[in-house]
Design a protein that fits this description.
single chain, alpha/beta, three-stranded antiparallel β-sheet, 12 strands, disordered N terminus, AB hydrolase-1 domain-containing protein
Length: 336
Amino acid sequence: MEADIPPWARNGLDRESADQGGRVLSMRRAAPGGGTTGRLPARTRAQPGGPGCILPAPPANWDGASCTCRPGTEMPTMMTRRMLGHTLLAGAVTALLPGTASAQDLPRARNVVLVHGLFADGSCWSEVIPRLQEKGLNVTSVQNPLTTFEEAVASAQRVLARQEGPTVLVGHSFSGMIVTEAGVDPKVSALVYVAARAPDAGEDYTALAKTYPAPPASAGIVFDGDEGRLSETAFLRDFAGDLPVDRAKVLFAVQQPFHKALLAGRTTQAAWRLKPSFYAVSTEDRTINPDLERFMAKRMNARTVELKASHLSLISQAQDVAALILEAAGQPQARR
């Protein structure tokens, strides 16, 4: 049944609005019969009967059982069986949807494990790490070998094995696949995708990506034998386009090559079907199509924010990315 219901409908949302600065301003909750009940704060996840829920008051002369009202009568003071049934059903459905967990429902994480993607190394999280550490979190940035998918997943699993207590697993770009595969670890309490791939189990991500217009960065990948890199022009323009040029050039200098075999890997599991998930869409992304990011976020029913950023939102919008990770860790932050 769940597959037949669009994620926005399951959450009671009709859409999300974003300001020109890229940060989500509000969510609108769908009202019965169309229209909306008003705006909710962006960092409040609307759920039936949960935090942020706005329930329209029934007419005073509603008979409590049908869609008609009896003129001149008042609404019963006690909940009818039908009303109770709908309330319990809504709560049960919400409980069955991993992505609908609010920050208040999540265990307070002790650790955060960060995984970088292609054209980068572990230092790309340098703007996010101190923001998490100052909140008392133990943070580890995985050095992804970028050789084969199996070896990349194993590198993350080794780091997860060293963690004690609930852990938030975060992936950027290609490493969303690693998060999707390794995130089934019992220690992982939540998943965060930052402009990242999020395939389903066994899904051909390349085929999925081809259903959307190709992003400009794709044309900038150059190979030396089996090793691939992003050309300097493509790196500065399409990968790190909203960073100061001098900073982008430093990142280009430490770019790690990836092995062609890495791209052949497929996930065998989809952790986002089991764990609460969060997604940061980069609206100015030229490395992964932003509409593809939106599709993947919606499909996993993720708590989603949109950031006016290049593919490297973890640097250019580090505060907002850190805030989303903290929310996944059970530490919701006030929006700036």
